[in-house]
Amino acid sequence: MKDSCYMIHLYLQKLYTFFTYFIAPPYCLFCKQSMLERQALCSTCLITVLPIVPYDFHIGRHQDVKVYAMAAYKDPLRKLIVAKHFNNAIPSWYLAKMMCEQSILQYLEFDIIVFIPLHWTRYAARGFNQAEIIAQEIGRHTGKPVIPLLIRSKKTQFQASLSVDQRAANLNNAFSLNPKYQHQIIGKKIVIIDDLFTTGSTVKAAAQLIFLHNPLKITAFVVCRVVS
């Protein structure tokens, strides 16, 4: 009975998503103002999304990752990111489109795109992975391959409520590499896609694992970065 109710819930969620995305009149996902074209944000909200400088993130000895972000983590983009917790995939598609329109992509050098995965239980509950949606759209836009290199091998707590040290411990052995793809990254420039960069624990855990297989370079491209 419980499984049946859950499947019905997923079906209704997908039906709502289809209606909202393809049929309902376009509106700003932040202020709800009506718009003529189907976009994430109206012009008033969009002008508040300001670019930030890249962040040089030290991973380990001779291992650094330059982190590019579309903007700082605050509204209106914050609202679009957290919508994933309510099983709403629509903002993810819009965020992916916005990422593809960033001038960053014009000079960001990469051969292969990878994304931060969800644990299978969380993916099953949510029905999508925001980072994967963004990665696939960037792949289509740039013509670069997207590979499921990273596997979320351990179910972890949500990072938001944890301290810096707790986040690092929470992600210990959380990832593994898909043996089908790990040989493809040797000598290649890799870009890691995620929606949010806070303390960097997630990117660090993923990058440390990838560095073990001798890529030429690793960068990260995220929707937002927390700026203190």
Written description of the protein model:
It comes from Candidatus Chromulinivorax destructor. This is Phosphoribosyltransferase domain-containing protein. InterPro entries: ComF/GntX_DNA_util-trans, PRTase-like, PRTase_dom. Belongs to the ComF/GntX family. With 228 residues, the chain is α/β, with parallel strands linked by helices. Helix 4 packs parallel to helix 7. The longest helix has 22 residues. It starts with a helix and ends with a strand. It is globular. It has a single domain, classed as Rossmann fold (3-Layer(aba) Sandwich). The strands form two sheets. It has a five-stranded mixed sheet. A two-stranded antiparallel ribbon has the order 4-5. The protein is built from nine helices and seven strands.
| Order of neighbouring strands in the sheet with most strands | 1-2-7-6-3
Instruction: Give the CATH level 1 class.
Output: Alpha Beta
Total strands: the figure is 7
How would you state the average pLDDT, rounded? 88
Q: State the domain count.
A: 1
Return Rg in Å: 18 Å
Q: Gap between N and C termini, in Å?
A: 47 Å
Element string (H = helix, E = strand): HHEEHHHEHHEHEEHE
Low-confidence stretches: none
How is the CATH topology named? Rossmann fold
Q: What does the overall shape look like?
A: globular
In which range does the helix fraction lie?
Answer: 25-40%
The second-level CATH architecture is 3-Layer(aba) Sandwich
Beta fraction of the residues? 15-25%
**How many H/I helical runs?**
9
What can be said about the biggest beta sheet? 5 strands, mixed
Structural class: alpha/beta
Protein name: Phosphoribosyltransferase domain-containing protein
Pfam family, one: Pribosyltran
Domain Phosphoribosyltransferase: 127-225
Family: Belongs to the ComF/GntX family.
